[in-house]
Write a structure and sequence with these properties.
The structure holds 2 protein chains of 2 kinds. Chain A is α/β, with parallel strands linked by helices. Chain A is built from 7 helices and 9 strands. In chain A, helix 1 packs across helix 2 and helix 3 crosses helix 6. In chain B, the strands form 3 sheets. In chain B, strands 1-2-3-4-5-7-6 form a 7-stranded mixed beta sheet, sandwiched between helices. A 6-stranded mixed beta sheet of chain B has the order 10-9-8-11-12-18, sandwiched between helices. Classes of the chains: A alpha/beta, B alpha/beta.
Chain lengths: 227, 505
């Protein structure tokens, strides 16, 4: 039986334990700050609620973002350290995939986003990238194992530029307000593993270079001097 | 045959000792003034003489480092008194001295052409661990290096807490492992090269690098220390002061590791860690001490009366850190990054008195309010102005003199204020820490000024001075050994954590 501990700090702090498709415990703290304060207790709490000790987990799943920098790293750092601590494998999942899964499965019974999501009318997932930009990804549906199929993304753009791009491509996407949960993240991992996917990459998806400006060179001075 | 006895050596034994020294060691004998220094009262030195009646017929000495390694300095028995067990009795005294101070190991070196002595030491638990070729000059006789591990110390050490420390407050990811006051691993992964083209640490680049370095550094440290996470007694992590985004990587990792392993977690102060690291070399931090911590991120002067309970900030920089000033001036002079070593290199042939650059916050009006504070921003500007003026006149800029004069201004202020703090507070010792301690001139001037006023100067090994996880583990181990409660899981990373908060609960 595979039992996942899933951690995502691309938005708030989300932690869940999911076993064979069922959520044993989950914590969602919406606070877009405070990741490093919350992460330890969040993990301890789901373990306690699930009645498991850390060694009973079979693997760790972590959301790779995209997300603004600081919070995202806390979850990945925690997942890396936790996996080392219990000596279990660590899998990385794009956080947008979890939102896509939630959106595509939540309404499928009612007839349905999943049927509607196609190449021409894909599901658009957007999250706040701050600085008046959004992170976005397009999904065309679910594969046979139930994992979201990504058409494009994740990328980062200004909302107006994203709309222009969609119009240019003649894409009329399905929009979703589904939120991210660590449960969905674990389910994506399970579906991808079932489909033979490689989830070894746990690197953070920042999609932006660090804010750093190279100082002006003192070239002129450098040439004149003698020592 | 008269009765023999062994007693602690006195300074008045010098002449008698020197007679035996010369006849026993010939060309390699110590000069009399060296021996006199050895016999002078000193807490670390334990010398004994063997007496035959009133006559000194043998002597031996050991340099004892409490909780650590001791070194046999010398041992000799007058030829006429040999084969009477005096050598063994003297050596036993040395071993007892080391044992009483809880030394872990005793080293000695013995001439390779003296098998009788080697056999004696072997019979007392020493084992040969190395040979130094041509050690005894001028005859070029090899030295056999022998080591005795103290059995009692071994048990005691194995009962000390095994602690893993995580440091990520600036641009170094440090994972250290200690057992009590014994260093087992100190893995440091630096992102320095990535900051080079920006001329200073870029917080976001540093934080990204921490995340990438984390897993390999943990694995390497465990491998070097030859321990598993299961064996740990506690985990310690830096929760400030430092760069917020960088700190959070370590804090997030440490909390998850603590939950995963079920080990207690201690959130410790980075600056106090720089002070606490001395336990790894000395077995303890001798207090009270003034600590001058100088790096690219900090320039702080602390008064430490007790490592865990009484740390006071006397002063700190009010603008740039000293290391930052080195970086900025290095760039200004067209030299590389990091600035410290580049300035050092450029200054090697320079005249430190060529240009009188200002000493920040040393004027009487500043000293009232900022007696122990530092300022390097004005100095940096003064260097820039000086260079501009020199350029404007069309003269070539004497880089070596500018570098040497700038460095002198920085070092002068740092050391003067630190020594003043020692004198003002009647504290007989000064401890240096932080990456800028690598600066040769800083060490030189500190040694000079401390010697002038009779202050003991402590400078830990460089890899313990720069940011590292071993110091965090060492401070964590001190907290464990003092029976302090661990931190809760909800402490925050605090970029401005005050030094008074040694451990955050």
């Amino acid at each position: 039986m595979s039992t996942f501990l899933a951690i995502d700090t691309s938005g708030g702090t989300c932690v869940a334990i999911v076993s064979e498709g069922k959520t044993l415990a989950s914590v969602n703290i919406d606070d877009p700050m405070g990741h490093s304060e919350n992460i330890g207790n969040a993990i301890a709490l789901v373990l306690q609620e699930a009645g498991l000790n850390p060694n009973q987990l079979s693997s760790i799943v972590v959301g790779r973002g995209p997300a603004p920098f600081t919070g995202l790293r806390v979850g990945i750092a925690a997942a890396i350290a936790f996996a080392e601590g219990v000596g279990k494998p660590l899998f990385g999942v794009v956080s947008h995939d979890a939102i896509a899964l939630a959106a595509l499965t939540a309404t499928s019974a009612a007839g349905s986003n999943q049927a509607a999501a196609t190449n021409a009318n894909p599901l658009l997932v957007t999250t706040d990238a701050r600085r008046k930009e959004v992170y976005w990804s397009l999904y065309s549906g679910l594969d046979s194992h139930g994992a979201p199929i990504v058409l494009d993304g994740p990328n980062v753009n200004k909302p107006a530029d994203l709309e222009e791009l969609l119009t240019e491509r003649n894409v009329n996407p399905i929009r979703t307000d589904a939120s991210l949960s660590a449960t969905s993240l674990a389910l994506v991992a399970a579906a991808k593993i079932a489909g033979g996917g490689n989830l070894e990459d746990i690197s953070a998806l920042y999609l932006r270079a660090p804010d750093a400006v190279e100082p002006k060179a003192h070239g002129k001075f450098g040439k004149q001097v003698s020592s | 045959m008269t009765a023999t006895e062994i007693r602690p050596a006195l300074e008045s034994d010098l002449d008698a000792i020197m007679v035996i020294e010369h006849s026993s060691f010939g060309l390699t004998a110590w000069p009399s003034d060296s021996m006199a220094l050895e016999l002078a009262p000193n807490a670390d030195r334990h010398y004994f003489v063997a007496l035959d009646g009133e006559l000194v017929v043998g002597y031996a000495g050991i340099n004892v480092v409490a909780g650590h390694q001791s070194n046999v300095m010398t041992i000799a028995v007058a030829e006429s008194s040999r084969c009477r067990g005096l050598g063994r009795a003297l050596m036993q005294k040395l071993i007892d001295s080391a044992e009483s101070q809880k030394s872990v190991e005793i080293f000695l070196e013995v001439r390779a052409d003296n098998p009788a002595a080697q056999n004696l030491y072997r019979s007392m638990g020493f084992e040969q661990i190395d040979i130094r070729r041509g050690y005894y000059k001028p005859e070029n006789i090899d030295a056999v290096i022998m080591l005795k591990t103290m059995p009692t110390a071994r048990t005691e050490i194995s009962s000390q807490p095994l602690v893993l420390g995580i440091e990520s407050s600036c641009d170094e990811t440090g994972i250290g492992i200690v057992r009590g006051t014994t260093l087992l691993a100190n893995v440091i992964s630096s992102s320095m090269d990535q900051h080079a083209r920006f001329g200073g640490v870029v917080p976001e680049i540093a934080a990204r690098a921490h995340l990438e370095a984390l897993q390999p550094a943990i694995r390497e440290a465990l491998k070097i220390a030859n321990v598993s996470l299961d064996e740990l007694d506690a985990i310690a992590v830096t929760n400030g002061p430092g760069l917020a985004g960088a700190l959070m990587v370590g804090v997030g990792a440490a909390k998850a590791l603590a939950v995963a392993t079920g080990k207690p977690l201690y959130a410790v102060n980075h600056l106090v860690g720089h002070v606490g690291v001395d336990v790894l070399e000395r077995g303890q931090v001798e207090t009270p001490t003034i600590a001058l911590l100088v790096s690219g991120g900090h320039t702080s002067l602390l008064l430490v009366r007790d490592l865990l309970d009484d740390v006071q900030l006397l002063g700190e920089t009010i603008d740039d850190a000293a290391g930052e000033a080195f970086d900025k001036v290095s760039r200004l002079l067209g030299l590389g990054y990091p600035g410290g070593p580049q300035i050092d290199k450029a200054a090697a042939n320079g005249d430190a008195k060529a240009i009188r650059f200002p000493r920040g916050l040393t004027l009487p009006k500043d000293m009232e309010k900022h007696r122990y504070d530092f300022s390097f921003s004005g100095l940096k500007t003064a260097v820039a102005r000086w260079v501009e003026v020199a350029e404007a006149t069309g003269a070539s800029v004497p880089i070596a003199d500018v570098a040497a004069s700038f460095r002198e201004a920085v070092v002068d202020v740092l050391v003067s204020k630190a020594v003043a703090a020692c004198v003002d507070h009647k504290v007989p010792r000064l401890l240096l820490g932080g990456g800028v301690v690598a600066n040769a001139r800083l060490r030189e001037v500190a040694a000079q000024k401390c010697a002038d006023v009779g202050i003991e100067l402590r400078i830990p090994a460089f890899e313990l001075c720069t940011d590292n996880g071993a110091m965090i583990a060492a401070l964590g181990a001190q907290l464990v050994m003092a029976g302090r409660p661990p931190s809760s899981l909800n402490f925050a990373a605090d970029s401005t954590l005050p030094v008074t908060q040694v451990c955050s609960l």
